[in-house]
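User: I'm putting together a teaching handout on how multi-component assemblies are represented. Below are the sequence lines for each component of a complex, exactly as they appear in our records. Could you produce the 3D structure of the whole assembly as structure tokens, so the students can see both representations side by side? Please keep the chain order the same as the input.
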Amino acid sequence: MDPVIEVEGLRKEYRRLRGRRTVAVDGLDLVVPQGGVFGFLGPNGAGKTTTIRCLLGLVRPTVGRCRLLGQEPAGLHRVIGRVGSIVESPTMYPRFSGRRNLELLGRISGIGRARVARALEEVGLAERADDQVKTYSLGMKQRLGIAAALLKDPEVLILDEPANGLDPAGIVEVRELMRRLGRDGRTVFVSSHILGEVQQTADRVAILARGRSVAVGPVHEVLSAGRATGLLVRLDDVPAGLRTLGEAGIEARLDDGVIKVRVPPAEAARVTRTLADRGLYLTELRADEADLETVFLELTGDASREGTR
Amino acid sequence: MSRLLASEFRRFRSRRLVKALVALELLAIVATGVIVVLTQEYVLVGLPDVLMGTSLVLVSVAWILGASSIGADWHAGHITTILTWEPRRGRVMLAKIAASLASVFVVSIVIQALLGAALAAAAAGAGSTAGADAAWLAESAGVALRVALLSTIFAGFGFGLASAGRNSAVALGVGFGYLVIVENLVRGLRPQWTPWLLTENAGLFIVDSPIDFPLLARSTVGAGLYLAAVGAVLLLVASGLFRTRDVN
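Assistant: Of course. Below is the structure of the complete assembly, with chains in the same order as your input.
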């Protein structure tokens, strides 16, 4: 199956005053397969939006190539009808109603009023659809942007920080929407800072730092690449457990009522046997996996340190 | 392309500034008609002079409309949204120029027709329609057409400058600065450059009397073609910039 998004050696420099240059993306390689939700993560200034702009033909790469549905920016018009997108904050005419804005966009692709109404319904904006966009809250504008992206019934959805400004209910709705679209076989490429959301939604992720990819793959693989490996142990007599593990030469410490044991999860049997031999029985034992946030901070922190050396 | 064009026409028509300016012009026409009826016996044969007199307003409004039609898109960041629907920038630019200029032309013609109708009614009611024959009608229509064409060309100037500067204010500022300050300075300091001044050529094009513009040494059509060429160059430069520059 052909990848939906291919980025090869992408570099984008912006010229500044006095001949200085800012490198927004620095040799990025990325392949996004068809179907599912792909999380595109990175701190501010990592190059996420610039990459998305390159993919959509809004900015020209300084070096490198990017293809969307097999098309480079010059041939983007052949596939743009299959791509829905939000780039940063959706920009609509503030004095037109939400419905009017969508109708004007839809007209470009021959999309009628019924589809516009359906898209507005889908994002929960039907009741305010005829109000001027300038009266919308940030979250409502974001929903309108999502409605615009959905209008084409796209195969590929590129969402740049779609949860910006949304309230918790809105975030859950967007998460559900992305999941549903991903399950339907569409490809959702989503950049986000809300790592917990991405962890719950995405099948694969790429983590960007200083314009480079520092990790890419299925979420569980990226998580397992995190360094915080160990075991979390719960038992009734915590002090005795800590003492027993210490006497057996197993490094352990108490953290928020849970004993954190510094041994690889593969050696869990050694821990349980050591404790059981002293009559200490576990109430819980699980791997101390890093969450996406931890991995993200480690990886992007490393990249920043390397960058400043 | 036709869908894009239809969308751009609709967008232009829906803009509040367009509605407000057209409404103001209509209000001015009604007021003019009422004032004429109440204060004088209007002689309809003078209509061409009235149309020439109001051309400055129409051309100024056209400049504003041309500039704001693209400047508002840049200001609101809507260009990004449009390009995610139609990435061929040449087409987007062409559709925007066509919608903007064609709309300005139609608005100019309609406004002048309404003004003519209001004054004709005033003349028929409390003035004179003597001399309003076929030749008068042809002359009036000629003036109205030239005013509409000049408005369209100046809308193109506004559009080109606003697109290049990515802001309506750039077009208005540059336009005012150039036409009022630079051209007056040139007129005073370098009279031999007068044939290339936009205001002089616009004056000749509207008045249609080369003898009143001896320094230009060109015909009315020549003045119109020169202005159109300047507008075309501005629009070409703006289109070139639009095709090559990043949209952030």
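A couple of points students might notice: The two ends of chain A are 41 Å apart (CA to CA). The interface with chain B takes residues 53, 56-60, 73, 76-77, 80, 83, 85, 87, 89-96, 100, 104-105, 107-110, 148 of chain A (CB under 8 Å).
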